[in-house]
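Bumping with the actual sequence this time:
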Amino acid sequence: MQVPQDTTEVTPCQDGRPPGFQRVSAALQALNHAHAPLWLEVAARTSQEAAEALGVSLGQIAKSVVFRRKSDDRAVLVIASGDRRIDEKKLKIHTGALARADADYVKACTGFSIGGVSPLGFAPADGLDVPLLFVDRELFRFEVIWAAAGHPNGVFRMSPAELEALTGAPVIDVVQAQVSELLS
């Protein structure tokens, strides 16, 4: 199990943090999750930045990627390993046709800004449904993974099985095949 290498760079959840971070903290507490979110002293808007800040592998970052479902404009959120790319053709099997989501759409549908989209603690704008969630099976390569906690400076740890239980999201195969898989 890998944990942040330099504990001076992270602090436990404290009052006075941004609303998204507080929502995720409250959601984790309500779900009796064993690990409170951490506040990084540096923003981690990308999977690479988060991995570097935490001292873990890129694949251990549970990135959140948001799409727009064309049939009803509902947000679709895929939680995938930071070292993998989403295969939209695989995802469309589960959702139907998709479109890209811009920053305003992501904020309206999740309550979070890009770079801090958490897999829980949503606060969609009035009249919008919470996103349709999926967890990619590639996250199960790791014992410990890290997800955004509602803000680019916030993260929380869990196992992939805990992510599945916390979100209730189905686990699917939705990432592009790796070169090594194509050659075998």
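The tokens above came from a reply further down the thread. Confidence is low (pLDDT under 50) at residues 1-13.
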